[in-house]
């Protein structure tokens, strides 16, 4: 059975459990390891491997809301469907869904800049105009592949996920082995930022796992979705925890915290030099370039489809701007333009921070909606939903406090962005929420 939303064809049962896991891990590993390891170490100090574990635990609680809702109503609408089921077709649901879409676009630009940073390492180029140029280049490449057709994207994601997981696991083992399983980063003070810095680092670690929402957005296409959406999310998060810990300990065995922070945009490549020699360094760069390019490809596809879905659900306005073809092709263009702009004007740290603010706010809106309006319908347990909400609030508070000290402008930009999204949606739609949807109406 095919579903047509916004010009895109969605075929029920077209994604296997393995394909769903590959899709989730493909998006997660591209951003989580190559882009965020150094950023997390900067905040968490020697505890940065633990930040990944805590991030996974918080994500596990968060995933509960999405799994329970997807089990009840598997849909290609994914997060947009969840929000609409909770709040009705109003500005709260539309605003939070648009924040999710924007956080996905931000993730694209984050991974695109990481692609550029790694590609330039063999030439000892750090920064400069080539970084935004190459970042935009890989985004445009992903656009062209998506325009050419998406039939092979599923298979491509599966192959790339296997290469990424295998290659990164080998890197982690080799780095640990060559160091005699010593943790060089562990010889320093725990963290200059204390408990607040550690909790703030968890906000970025959560970004390393948020790719599981890509699985939620493909609920209607996964085989036996009532069982497999939850299983795919759980397997993806578990796989990523193992891979992230291998990398964290591998990097920490080769570099001190100061060295990791200095090389935060390309920490894996820097760690490969003392651990694996010049050949290992070049292979790590190659792996990073391939992994980040494939992650951009998968992310561009996912975001454009979500925006097409939001258009189809009348949650955002749409203008063709003179373009022909289906709506998803138009949303591909919008996605590429916004991601390219972010990649040009923001560095990795600011892009990651913006993504964390947008995603955590959206996540809290989801948990509140599920707890307030739908927990009885789906058989969800209140303590888990409340715990997920509290964890997000604690992490967001700590992250905001840290950024107000180190980069207050990004807090202002994030706050202005969130306000603008909800103000825009309230202007576009007639109300904040529809009470008849918020009760038990189907």
From TrEMBL:
<feature type="transmembrane region" description="Helical">
    <location>
        <begin position="12"/>
        <end position="35"/>
    </location>
</feature>
<dbReference type="InterPro" id="IPR050367">
    <property type="entry name" value="APC_superfamily"/>
</dbReference>
<protein>
    <submittedName>
        <fullName>APC family permease</fullName>
    </submittedName>
</protein>
<feature type="transmembrane region" description="Helical">
    <location>
        <begin position="190"/>
        <end position="209"/>
    </location>
</feature>
<dbReference type="Pfam" id="PF13520">
    <property type="entry name" value="AA_permease_2"/>
</dbReference>
<feature type="transmembrane region" description="Helical">
    <location>
        <begin position="281"/>
        <end position="308"/>
    </location>
</feature>
<feature type="transmembrane region" description="Helical">
    <location>
        <begin position="155"/>
        <end position="178"/>
    </location>
</feature>
<feature type="transmembrane region" description="Helical">
    <location>
        <begin position="352"/>
        <end position="371"/>
    </location>
</feature>
<feature type="transmembrane region" description="Helical">
    <location>
        <begin position="408"/>
        <end position="424"/>
    </location>
</feature>
<feature type="transmembrane region" description="Helical">
    <location>
        <begin position="127"/>
        <end position="148"/>
    </location>
</feature>
<feature type="transmembrane region" description="Helical">
    <location>
        <begin position="329"/>
        <end position="346"/>
    </location>
</feature>
<keyword id="KW-1003">Cell membrane</keyword>
<feature type="transmembrane region" description="Helical">
    <location>
        <begin position="87"/>
        <end position="107"/>
    </location>
</feature>
<keyword id="KW-0812">Transmembrane</keyword>
<dbReference type="InterPro" id="IPR002293">
    <property type="entry name" value="AA/rel_permease1"/>
</dbReference>
<feature type="transmembrane region" description="Helical">
    <location>
        <begin position="383"/>
        <end position="402"/>
    </location>
</feature>
<feature type="transmembrane region" description="Helical">
    <location>
        <begin position="47"/>
        <end position="67"/>
    </location>
</feature>
<keyword id="KW-1133">Transmembrane helix</keyword>
<feature type="transmembrane region" description="Helical">
    <location>
        <begin position="229"/>
        <end position="251"/>
    </location>
</feature>
<keyword id="KW-0472">Membrane</keyword>
């Amino acid at each position: 059975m095919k579903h047509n939303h916004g010009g895109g064809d969605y075929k029920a049962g077209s994604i296997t459990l393995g394909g769903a896991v590959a899709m989730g891990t493909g998006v997660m590993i591209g951003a989580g390891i190559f882009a965020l390891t150094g950023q997390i170490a900067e905040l968490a100090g020697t505890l940065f491997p633990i930040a990944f574990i805590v991030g996974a635990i918080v994500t596990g609680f968060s995933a509960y809301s999405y799994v329970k809702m997807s089990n009840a109503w598997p849909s290609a609408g994914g997060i947009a469907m969840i929000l609409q089921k909770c709040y009705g077709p109003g500005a709260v649901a539309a605003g939070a869904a648009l924040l999710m879409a924007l956080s996905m676009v931000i993730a694209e630009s984050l991974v695109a800049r990481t692609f550029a940073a790694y590609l330039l390492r063999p030439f000892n180029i750090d920064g400069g105009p080539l970084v935004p140029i190459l970042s935009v280049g890989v985004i445009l490449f992903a656009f062209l592949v998506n325009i050419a057709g998406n039939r092979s994207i599923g298979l491509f994601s599966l192959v790339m996920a296997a290469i990424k997981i295998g290659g990164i696991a080998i890197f982690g083992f080799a780095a640990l082995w060559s160091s005699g399983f010593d943790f060089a980063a562990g010889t320093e003070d725990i963290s200059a930022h204390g408990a607040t810095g550690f909790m703030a680092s968890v906000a970025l670690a959560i970004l390393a796992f948020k790719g599981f929402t890509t699985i939620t957005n493909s609920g209607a296409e996964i085989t036996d979705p009532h069982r497999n959406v939850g299983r795919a999310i759980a397997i993806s998060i578990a796989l990523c925890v193992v891979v992230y810990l291998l990398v964290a300990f591998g990097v920490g065995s080769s570099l001190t915290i100061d060295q990791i922070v200095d090389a935060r945009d390309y920490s894996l490549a820097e760690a490969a030099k003392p651990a694996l020699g010049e050949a290992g360094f070049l292979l790590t760069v190659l792996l990073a370039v391939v992994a980040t390019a494939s992650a951009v490809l998968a992310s561009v596809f996912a975001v454009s489809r979500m925006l097409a879905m939001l258009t189809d659900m009348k949650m955002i306005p749409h203008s063709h701007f003179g373009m022909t073809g289906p709506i998803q092709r138009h949303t591909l263009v919008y996605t590429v333009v916004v991601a390219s702009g972010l990649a040009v004007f923001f560095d990795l740290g600011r892009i990651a921070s913006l993504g964390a603010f947008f995603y955590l706010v959206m996540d809290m809106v989801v948990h509140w909606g599920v707890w307030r309006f739908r927990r009885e319908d789906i058989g969800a347990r209140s303590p888990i939903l409340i715990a997920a909400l509290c964890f997000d609030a604690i992490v967001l508070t700590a992250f905001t406090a840290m950024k107000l000290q180190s980069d207050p402008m990004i807090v202002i930009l994030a706050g202005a962005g969130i306000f603008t999204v909800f103000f825009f949606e309230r202007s576009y739609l007639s109300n904040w929420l529809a009470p008849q949807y918020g009760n038990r109406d189907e």
